[in-house]
């Protein structure tokens, strides 16, 4: 898996990404997050960046981003096992303001607890 880190000024949250394979992904990720304790809340959302128009799917999380590389590798491995290595999944570490905006259009699939 290739990891690229970029900083985006504006993220637009469009809604939840859901379907049969996405539910399988959410289930496996929730199991990982429950064991690893890096994530407080997690969402699978459709997003667009800085009015670019292209819709992406992103794993949006609130938690401890200090484990970024290990986290990305584990998430990427689960994602690739379901969708194939030719697809990609964006990971967004949310700040409180972003999470508040996201909660207007998407429910979390994982909450630590």
Structure description:
The chain is of the alpha+beta class. It has one domain: Beta Polymerase, domain 2 (2-Layer Sandwich), CATH 3.30.460. The protein contains 3 helices and 5 strands, in the order βαββαβαβ. Strands 1, 2, 3, 4 and 5 form a 5-stranded mixed β-sheet that branches. β2 and β3 form a beta hairpin. α1 (20-36) runs antiparallel to α2. The longest helix has 17 residues, at 20-36. The chain is globular, with a radius of gyration of 13 Å. The termini are far apart. The relative contact order is 0.26. The model has no long low-confidence stretch (mean pLDDT 89).
Key attributes of the depicted protein:
about 35% helix; alpha+beta; single chain; Beta Polymerase, domain 2; 5-stranded mixed sheet; 3 helices; about 110 residues; about 25% strand
Task: Compile the SSE list and pairings.
Blueprint: E1 11-16, H1 20-36, E2 39-49, E3 56-63, H2 68-83, E4 90-93, H3 96-102, E5 110-111
Parallel strand pairs: 3-4
Antiparallel strand pairs: 1-2, 2-3, 2-5
Helix pairs in contact: 1-2
């Amino acid at each position: 898996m290739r990891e690229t880190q970029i900083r985006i000024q504006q993220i637009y949250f469009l809604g939840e990404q859901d379907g049969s394979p996405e539910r399988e992904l959410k289930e496996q990720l929730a199991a990982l997050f429950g064991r690893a304790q890096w994530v407080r809340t997690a969402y699978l959302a459709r997003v667009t960046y800085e009015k670019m128009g292209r819709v992406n799917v992103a794993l949006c999380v609130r938690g401890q981003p200090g484990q970024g590389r290990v986290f990305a590798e584990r998430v990427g491995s689960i994602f690739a096992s379901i969708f194939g290595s030719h697809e990609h999944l964006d990971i967004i570490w949310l700040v409180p303001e972003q999470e508040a905006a996201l909660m207007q259009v998407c429910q979390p699939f994982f909450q630590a607890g």
